[in-house]
Amino acid sequence: MTTDSVAKSSTRAVERALGLLAEVCDQGALTLAECARRSGLPSSTALRLLRTLESSDFVSRDHDGTFRAGTRLIQIGASALGRQSLVRLCQPALGRIAEASGESTYLSILGPGETAVYIGMVEGTHAVRHTSWVGRTIPLDATAAGQVLRGELPPSGYVAYRSSVEPDVTALAAPIRRSGGIAGVISVVGPTYRLDEPQVEFIGRLVNREAASLSRQFAAAQLATPELSDSRSEVVAG
């Protein structure tokens, strides 16, 4: 095989792998048969490429055999999102909340499948604090950010969960709203022993106030910058 033919073969393999990756991301989760059908590849070829992607954590395989976006891909996407408009808009508010509460403060959006993904954060000021989860996904079920993304809000306007993803950790979350849905979620995460009821109420009011202010800023930014409202990666439909 000549050097040119090797290069062409490698390029074609990369194109096929990227095509499969795009299909999995677009659909949320796909079986092997669906991947092969959508990409037009033989099942054996699709499986070989998916296994290669899986070995590098670009896709993951569920217990039922379906493929979805993997941890590494989500981390890369979150890093890219972290340099874009929504994070820039929210960063000052995250800093104010972290300074006033002493706890780590996060921005999250809807992730692949039934998940939320953290795309921005400011660490708390306490020696014992929640460290960065930017790029990490959490389930929508039984989590503060997940409940907010689903629009399941109590009368207080914020959600508080204890020991949902991690034991002895409490999270509070409130929505950043846009026209017709939710743009993202502001959440505070800290050790349960430090977040007693009075502190939860204080932080809840703080998160509510900043989230409401961000909602107004986001609405103004959408009017001034139409592409912000068109970005599927930054805006979560409610």
Account of the protein in words:
The chain is α+β, with helices and mostly antiparallel strands and 238 residues long. The chain has two domains: 3-69, Arc Repressor Mutant, subunit A; 75-237, GAF domain (Beta-Lactamase), CATH 3.30.450. The chain has eight helices and nine strands. It has helices at 3-27, 32-39, 43-55, 71-81, 85-101, 144-149, 197-224, 226-230, and strands at residues 59-61, 67-69, 104-110, 115-122, 137-139, 159-162, 169-178, 181-191, 236-237. The strands form two sheets. Strands 3, 4, 5, 6, 7, 8 and 9 form a seven-stranded antiparallel beta sheet that branches. A two-stranded antiparallel ribbon has the order 1-2. Helix 1 (3-27) crosses helix 2, helix 1 packs across helix 3 (43-55) and helix 5 packs antiparallel against helix 7. The chain is elongated.
Explain briefly what this protein structure is.
By secondary structure, the protein is of the alpha+beta class.
